[in-house]
Records
---
Amino acid sequence: MEPTRNPYTPNAGAVPPVIAGRDDLEGSFRLLLARLAQGRSEQSMIITGLRGVGKTVLLEQFRQIADGLRWVVIDREITKHDDDDFRRSLAAWMRSALLSLSRKELWGERLTHALGVLRSFSLSVDPDGRLSAGLDVDAQYGVADQGILQQDLTDLFVAAGEAAQDHHRGIVLLLDEVQFLNPLQLESLIVGLHKTVQRNLPVTLVGAGLPQIPELAGDAKSYAERLFVFPSIGNLPDDQARLALREPAVAEGVVWTDDALTAAVARTEGYPYFLQELGYAVWLIAHDDTITAADVERAIPQYEQKLDSSFFRVRLDRATELQRAYLRAMAELGPDPQKASDVATLLGRQSNQVGPTRAELINMGLLYTPQHGYASFTVPQFDHFLKRTIPEFTVPPVQRRSARP
């Protein structure tokens, strides 16, 4: 069929024509903003799930909702950086948020104060004043300038929340890839948000990231489990997976047969990104306005080749030889979460010998820990890819240190 009419969107963060199975989360987000706008508290959320389940798409939906309700939105993807860089980034984000609250001629006392607090917050990492250029306010010495990220960010959040409240607005931070925050950075955000909750200020944080985030947040601050809910999203149930494939095609005058939908959902296991990738491939294979199971079968080689050369390959290309061996050993054991000691045994090593490799893979975002002592792939069917790419599992030789002369 005509490629330009292809309705499927196998791109990172691209919003598909039909967002299936996520209505409850959009409803929770609307409730969160509505209650905060009324001066009431409501638990915020950090959405967790594997790569490609639609977390970034949801954050984009939340951004559109918040914009429509005149909330000031800070929409950012977290990257790994040191604490000074993090403070610098926060200062830039909050500068943008505060200046979005009102035109300069309408700044009130609280907004002017908040901008002064921002100037204090940024002084330690911005002595030249570039982050506060054009604000024409004095630093609020003694506030947000202690050099302790947790305390200073709390001061800044409170001042920003009071300014937003004064202008009948709210501020929402939408942060993707939250797992890349280090413990101090995550703790500081949690503590700062906690203070705004205690004072009923219209500031909230909604995040997204890999499944280990609830554990990381709990380790950072024990009350994080009461400050946030941690909805987990994953593969779509059968009816919603069918909907995600069927409805975009219907809008283009194309119909999927029931057998075609059954075959496509079975192949993708209802995984949202795979649904878009397979739908895209099938569209290019089909010749008329009815997609059949035969079309799905003929599209499988192209679908797998695309996944192997991009989605899966970029993950494996970053791995060292030993890291690849660890991943291949996990694939040999199966798609389920694998016990660290079982992987080590298969590699012919002790757990403490391969522990650093496992930690590196977790740090790289290739594995996560669903429970203590276990690890799992951060994308489904990665074990199939590894077996296709590395058909024979071999135990790598132990690298021995040479004896000192």
Note: Residues 400-405 have pLDDT under 50 and may be disordered.
---
Amino acid sequence: MLSLNLLRVFNAVVEEKSVVRASEKLFISQPAVSAALKKFQAEIDVRLFHKAGRNLALTEQGAMLYELTKRMFETEHEIEDLVRSLNSKEKRVIHLGLVTIYERFGVEDILHDFAEIDKNISVSIHSGNSARILEMLGNKRWDMGIAGNVTLDKRLRYDFYRSHEVFLVAPKGHRLYGKKEFSAADINGERVVLKEPGSSVRATLDKFFSQDKVRIVLVMELSNIDSILSLAEAENCIAFLPDLSTKGLDKKLFSKARRKGGALSFSTYVVTHPPSEYTTAKRAIIEAFARRNAFEPGGGSQTGK
């Protein structure tokens, strides 16, 4: 069986390109490094180095062996980092960007998932529309995000998380109040309060309006759901909201309807950086979150083109 210590000496000499510098790195004497190399080459009966001026250069066989030892010791360092992080009692902070639908209606479940992964995780929640979340992730200000209707960015990767339906919401007294379904013709020319540009709901509606040639009268663009409902009631006009935010609607004041012939819907994605840009501890946390939510980071995901 090969000695791990001899492999470590070999790896250090290759990376330092010098027996002297390898001895300094390993905190052993130069003769000890030279003796270990000689013993290693004798044991495996393979010439690993040849002279290149004053430096040592790898033979073809030595280069093949180095590639394996390099991967092995990189993995060793990752394991050491992970063990240190797992034993650490310090809080590890994950900066998580959430679209407003989750920030208000799904955050407890998300925080519960992280707490189940590790009690020492501190999750800092940031809310915003999808465009804002992608911007902050692209600038490496946040660690991960959950956003919808994403535009692929080559700096990021995307894994499917959830699908959501968008409903028409009508206040009591409006002609569409009480309807269970609506068509493009039903809302043509209607006064509407819309979610702000950059949101998943707005992107879904803009596509619908364009494809079905729907003309609306825009009353106002807002981000806050309570404000949208209040304005729709005050102005006796309609609004469009995602499923989670319509579950608690007061049925005496509002009704909701889905589109005839196929729901208006959008997908949300867990958006992350490539694995190489995370510490070992953060990568382990994000991969654990992925497993709890039945998606595979990097496997079946979309990477920005």
Note: The chain has three domains: 4-87, 92-150+274-303, 163-266.
